[in-house]
Amino acid sequence: MEFQFINLFPSNWVNALGLTLFHSLWIGILLALVTSAIILFTKKSSARLRYNLLTATLCLFVLVMGLVFIRSIDAPKQQTVLPQITMNTPAQVLAQPPVIPSSESGLAERAKEVLNLWSLYSYQIVMIWFLIICAKCIQLVAGLHSVHYLKKNNVFDPGRYWEDKITELSEKLGLQKSIRLLQSGLAKVPMTAGHLKPVILMPLGMLNGLSLAEVEAILSHELAHIKRRDYLVNILQSLIEIVFFFNPAILWISRLIREERENCCDDLALTCTDNKQTYIKALISCQEFQSLNPEYAMAFSGKRGQLLGRVSRMVFNKSASLNKVEKTVLTIVLISSVLLTAAFTKDSKTAPVKLVKKEKALESVVILQDSTRKINSTKTSKTITPGAHKTTTATHKEYQNETTVQHKQEQIRLHQEQIRLKQEQIRMAQEDLRMAAEQKRAEAEALRAQHNSNANYNKDYQRYAKDIEHYNQLIAEYSHKTAANANKYAEKANQYAREMAVYTKQQEKYNRKEISVPPTEPTPPTPPSPLTPPTPPTPPTFSTPPSPPTRPAGYRAGDNNTSKTRKSSSLSTSNTSTSALAKTKTPEKEPSMADAIARTLLTDGVISQTRNLSFKFDKEELIVNGVTQPAQIHKRYVQKFLRDNVNRKIESTTTTD
Questions:
Q1: How many other CB atoms sit within 10 Å of the CB of residue 252?
Q2: Displacement of CA 386 from its chain's centroid (Å)
Q3: How confident is the model at residue 482, as a pLDDT?
Q4: Residue 377 has pLDDT above 70, yes or no
Q5: What is d(CA 644, CA 446) in angstroms, rounded to the nearest whole number?
Q6: Taking a C-beta distance cutoff of 8 angstroms, is the pair 277, 233 a contact?
Q7: Do the Cβ atoms of 570 and 651 come closer than 8 Å?
Q8: What whole-number distance in Å separates Cα of residue 424 and Cα of residue 242?
Q9: Of 347 and 87, the one with more pLDDT
């Protein structure tokens, strides 16, 4: 399954994202354990200390995840050099000596299996994760827009008295910012919105419905949020929750941070009011007003359960600890981790094998071996101590099963590579056939241009042209059949790969004694036999050159009624050139090549007549009547006329009096 929009990102980025999301799960468990320790050991500490520790823990998690992502991007890809694949490749692979298994623990092996399974579906996981965070980002933008809407719509000025009161309370808390206080007809609870230009929104009628001390307590709490820059921190915290929405540990720690944030603001507000009873009454009054408040604004009262905890903390001067649900979940996680670690570690421990003579002992472990090695292994087995004989046999069986599974997996990879090489060979064969047909056609055209005056040769050329057309049809049929055979083989090989994957899993279950019946190994597909390519037709041969025309009987050198034609042609290599006029005797091949070029120029429409024609042709350029021809025409003429000698230089001048 492929997803087109994932292709917009580099493959190493997608793999790095998948690994980062995987590692964030178990790192989140460690983070939850650290957070639990912080909550348990800081019951009597200040809310500010607990908030700073929890925030530092969350920032440390984000930093670790960033490092994991960067290292996953920069991690070098494992490169495997595949051997040359032939028809008997599986037998060659099985004949190789097995790789000695690593001494990793069972926990590490199972962790690698889970990681490999995760990496196998990394594209799908990253796609789902990306779609969900896109939806959550839209939700975040909608929440911020709702806060902005509350600041701009249905708001009223509270009056000069409350503006002065805001200024007075700001000076007590050491705030230097300009803060606006507005009454909102939409807000149901006091809240703070904005970072650069903060605004405190009070529900319409609350300023007159509560006592002066209670309103001051509420305003002090909201000013504490502004002083601590909680609006900005809350948005950044929301972004972290969006990225790691699937991690319950991060969501739990984020909730604890929000609770401790309110506790910190309560402590700052109490420094302004110095009356806990009034402050608690203000909290209860705001709870009565509360309905649905925006998620990303700093509300005063918070949730109903959180309100009870805040009041209890202020009354008893004791911070909240883990509740029953949190303690139960933490205990289950710890017990499960210990049991899984102990179980996997116990499975990985095996008794050591005491062998004498290392070189001969290793031969007894080889799966595919000759008769000589069997004799040596028989002799060597007698040197094993009696106490370790059973352990040695069990270890050999386990190692043999693991090596067999490794060989089967290697067979799957080699079959896939063999399919790719077969397809590449088919493509190269088709290209060679096409080039051969093009070359034959060019040779036929050259022969036709050279011997156009011979009637028998024209007949042979027509027959050869028909043979060429038939040959092209055979080539097309050959290519189609070859591609069809390759596709059938690819389907069978893919089916074999899937069956081998099932067989490998069943073999592993059989090795672990989960099933009693050993699985049946699937039969690998037989590669298709190569088809015989069609034989190209033989071009016609011109045995004898055409005889030159006979000179008229009444011809005289000075006859004015006879047109005088002068021709000059020359042929040269890179350093030598020869020229001849029409009256000088020249070899037959030179004027034939020049005439062929002239006829081709006339056929291609470069010239309209062959009279008064002059051209110069070599591997560098083609000049006709003083005009340099385009590179495409020059390249085509080089391939056609200079194929046997690239350094040839042809010049021809034909004038008619």
A1: 17
A2: 54
A3: 84
A4: no
A5: 12
A6: no
A7: yes
A8: 46
A9: 347
What residues are paired with 568 via a beta bridge?
A: 653
Q: Is 256 exposed, middle or buried (0-12, 13-18, 19+ CB in 10 A)?
A: buried
pLDDT at 294: 56
| pLDDT reported for residue 57 | 94
| Amino acid, single-letter form, for residue 315 | V
Contact 36, 329 (CB under 8 A): no
Segment 247-271, tens digit of pLDDT: 999 999 999 999 999 889 888 888 8
Q: What is the pLDDT of residues 138-161, one digit of tens each?
A: 999 999 999 889 888 988 988 889
| Cβ-contact 280, 314 below 8 angstroms | yes
- 3-state DSSP of 557-591: CCCCCCCCEEEEEEEECCCCEEEECCCCCCCCHHH
Q: Which residues contact 410 (CB under 8 A, 6 or more apart)?
A: 93
Structure tokens belonging to residue 394: 């069990």
Average pLDDT, the chain: 74
* Residue that has been written with the tokens 């809407």 in this structure: 149
Q: Where is 531: in which H helix or E strand?
A: none
For the chain, the first-to-last Cα distance in angstroms comes to: 77
The closest alpha carbon to 192, from 223, 232, 153, 237, belongs to: 223
Structure-model confidence comparison of residues 104 and 341, the more confident one? 341
Confidence band (pLDDT; 50, 70, 90) for 550? very low
Tokens representing residue 27 in the block: 């790192």
pLDDT at 590 over 80: no
DSSP letter for 613, please. E
Using alpha carbons only, give the angle 336, 342, 344 rounded to the nearest 5 degrees: 100
Domain extents in the chain = 358-390, 394-511, 565-656
The residue with tokens 């990394």 is 122
DSSP per residue, 207-261: HHHS-HHHHHHHHHHHHHHHHTTHHHHHHHHHHHHHHTTT-HHHHHHHHHHHHHH
Prediction pTM value = 0.47
The Cβ of residue 123 has, within 10 Å, a number of other Cβ atoms equal to 20
27 alpha carbon, distance to own chain's centre? 24
- Give φ, ψ of 199 to 5 degrees: -135, 135
Of residues 267, 264, 195, the one with CA closest to residue 226: 195
Contact by Cβ (8 Å): 50, 38: yes
Which residues, including other chains, have CB under 8 Å from residue 243's CB and lie 6 or more apart?
133
Highest mean pLDDT among 137-151, 271-285, 591-605: 137-151
SS3 (DSSP) at 182: strand
DSSP H helices in 451-570? 455-511
**Per-residue model confidence (pLDDT) at position 588:** 40
DSSP 5-27: GGGGS-HHHHHHHHHHHHHHHHH
Dihedral Cα 340, 341, 347, 352, nearest 10 deg? -170
Which H or E run contains 268? Answer: helix 248-273
pLDDT in tens, 614-631: 888 888 888 988 888 888
